[in-house]
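Incident review: delayed structure delivery

Summary: a single-chain prediction request sat in the queue longer than the usual turnaround. Root cause was a stuck worker, restarted by the on-call engineer. No data loss occurred. The affected request and its eventual output are reproduced below so the record is complete for anyone auditing the incident later.

Affected input:
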Amino acid sequence: MSIPRIPAVLTVTLNPALDHTIEVDSLALGEVNRALSMQVDVGGKGINVASCLADFGVATGVTGQLGRDNVALFEALFAAKRIDNRFAYLDGLTRINTKLVDRRSRQTTDINMPGPTFDAGGAEALLGQIELEIATLMPACRWVVLAGSLPPGLPADSYARMARTARRHGARVVLDASGAALRAAIAAGVTIAKPNRAELSELVGEPLPTPGAVLQAARALIAAEHGPQQVVVSMGGDGALFVTAHEALHAHPADITPLSTVGAGDAMVAGIVAGAIETLPLAEQAQLATAFSAAKLARLGPHLPSAGAVRELARSIRITAAR
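Output delivered after worker restart:
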């Protein structure tokens, strides 16, 4: 068995999943559909981020909660990629999500389960254990990624609490969340926030129909009290905006035919972190993060091609000034 490396990045996944992906030729609702292929992949946003970082050669650890009754696939992935497994194991099953991939339309339909339900005592025990893992790994681990949904019963400020703990121990925090969890963690202070356009629109309370409107909202978020140092907003077919207090860039999407869009945003988060670790200029970080996302589009599961292939793809990503 391979020995995990001391992680440079710790990802927190409070609501992991097994992603059951079924590919059909053309999805017909209310009818019998014959599958072309089926696979089960380890999932959950933070785990996806860790898996992509590991493929790129970044030493990574993972924590959060897993149901011990179906943990084998998670453990196999962590062992194969030398990811440091610091999950809390709970009774029961980790949730199972279903992804229906329509090959003809190239659309993916997600059916996501809510995850386990926590009472107040269970929530406090879990969050306390994760805080202990964060404290144990610092200062060797300098980046903490907080990503994904919260299962029922975990308080909306769970990520805010993790962010404060990480910052207290000198780590930089990357946030990829939505709704009340996003709002609370932003107020607590994070280094980089990566909402998509819909999540940012909900956060600011107004529609963001154009990249210009997205840019204005991202700048306002940075300028706010306790605002992040950087905001990255993914906009689907419009690419992504990479915004700091002094610079704003538009990364245009790669010309790639997607096999599945599942996990593309998580791969972008991994690319953002990889670029930050390498202290790349913003334009090169934007190219690398977009290449991570584009490379993920061409395959199922939380996996990337070789680091060399990702870097070659990055050089082809077009970057322009955001307006």
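Verification: The first helix runs from residue 45 to 55.
Action items: add queue-age alerting; document worker restart procedure.
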